[in-house]
TrEMBL record:
Protein name: Aldo/keto reductase
Organism of provenance: Streptomyces monashensis
Record InterPro entries: AKR2_Oxidoreductase, NAD(P)_OxRdtase_dom_sf, NADP_OxRdtase_dom
Domain NADP-dependent oxidoreductase: 19-326
UniProt xrefs under PANTHER family: D-THREO-ALDOSE 1-DEHYDROGENASE, NADP-DEPENDENT OXIDOREDUCTASE DOMAIN-CONTAINING PROTEIN
């Protein structure tokens, strides 16, 4: 691998592939108490396992999940798929959301250190491992004062050897700063894709020496060519919550304005033999040397296409400038 296909998680010395795999979709269906879908529709667990194996074979060494994805199912499937190769990879999971595994329903939030301890024990069991490489606080808008307590709880987990490093999943630089003050904080997980830039947070990641882990790198599939037509019932995109931009609230599919912006940059993203999804990932690597996109996946074909982006590397500086010009930024 060239240097461009590797990243280090902050100041920890933990090396990962420059591409991680996001394991939300492979959790399968679950919902909010009011029936709002929180998964990406039905999944085939055997295909999910094959997709993880394909990712491993193609050099992916970083996997991002959360305890709540599929109310525990994503962690179980990832643990099963990794099996004896678990120590060959870096596993990130998250805590903060409550859920009922029996009814596959979200059940509120808990930002107490006592819950972090309980959630960690449960994640270790579901993943079938004795440590979490990167433990992430999932409540994007969490209380900063409470977060300072959680940061200290994470430092304690590191001392005990059950966690190697930690991060906050938040789009707010001021919240991220609370965790960044901790010795073993390694990253910020935040939204970043061609259509949703985050210059302030990227600048802070540079300043703090932290990795920028990019969720929704394909804009929930739009930057992989999805979004024409009505999403299936049971898919979060069929009834998008307020925090999910890019899809119309009436469930009719993608926002036309988002699709128009993708059309504007399609040619440049798909130059040099890249598919649209590969071009979207290449934009992220060109945007900053700290970025680690974690595209979601549900099939072997998606795993191959997304992992295949690594061999093609980042966009050139000239292509990056051209994308910014085309988007009027
Ligand atoms: N911390 C948080 O609060 C948070 C929030 C969001 C996401 N995340 C993390 O970030 C990861 C990725 O973000 P995301 O799931 O929001 O969206 P994304 O990566 O922008 O889009 C992923 C979806 O795009 C489609 N896709 C992926 N590769 C494709 C390909 N090569 N060709 C065609 N379609 C493709 C798949 O859906 P279909 O096949 O169903 O179209 C896939 O589930 C998640 O899995 C999760 O780990 C974290």
């Amino acid at each position: 691998m060239t240097h461009e296909t590797q990243r280090t998680l902050g100041r920890t010395g933990i090396d990962v592939s420059a591409l991680g795999f996001g394991c939300w979709a492979i959790g399968g269906e679950w919902q909010a108490a009011d029936g709002q879908p929180l998964g990406w529709g039905a999944v085939d667990d055997e295909e999910s396992v094959r997709a993880v194996h394909r990712a491993l074979d193609l050099g992916v060494t970083f996997f991002d999940t959360a305890d709540c994805y599929g109310t525990g199912h994503s962690e179980r499937i990832l643990g099963r798929a990794l099996g004896r190769r678990r120590d060959d990879v870096v596993v990130a999971t998250k805590w903060g959301n409550l859920f009922d595994e029996r009814t596959r329903t979200a059940d509120g939030q808990d930002d107490t250190p006592a819950h972090a301890r309980r959630a960690l024990t449960d994640s270790l069991r579901r993943l079938g491992t004795d440590h979490i490489d990167l433990y992430q606080f999932h409540l994007s808008d969490g209380d900063p004062e409470r977060a300072a307590e959680l940061r200290e709880a994470c430092e304690e987990f590191v001392r005990e050897g059950v966690v190697r490093a930690y991060a906050w999943s938040t789009d707010d630089p001021d919240r991220a700063a609370v965790f960044a003050a901790g010795e073993h904080c390694a990253a910020v997980q935040h939204t970043l894709n061609v259509l949703q830039d985050a210059p302030d947070l990227l600048a802070r990641c540079e300043e703090w020496g932290l990795a920028s882990i990019n969720r929704s790198p394909l804009a929930m599939g739009l930057l992989a060519g999805k979004g024409r037509g009505r999403p299936a019932a049971g898919d979060i995109r069929s009834r998008p919550p307020a925090w999910l931009p890019g899809y119309d609230a009436d469930g009719s599919g993608a926002d036309e304005e988002w699709l128009a912006r993708i059309d504007a940059v399609r040619d440049i993203l798909t130059s040099d033999g890249r598919t649209l999804a590969q071009g979207a990932l290449a934009w992220l690597w060109a945007r900053s040397p700290r970025t680690i996109p974690i595209p979601g996946f549900r099939t072997v074909a998606q795993a191959e296409e997304n992992a295949g982006a690594m061999a093609k590397g980042p966009l050139t500086a000239g292509q990056l400038t051209e994308v910014e010009r085309l988007l009027g930024r």
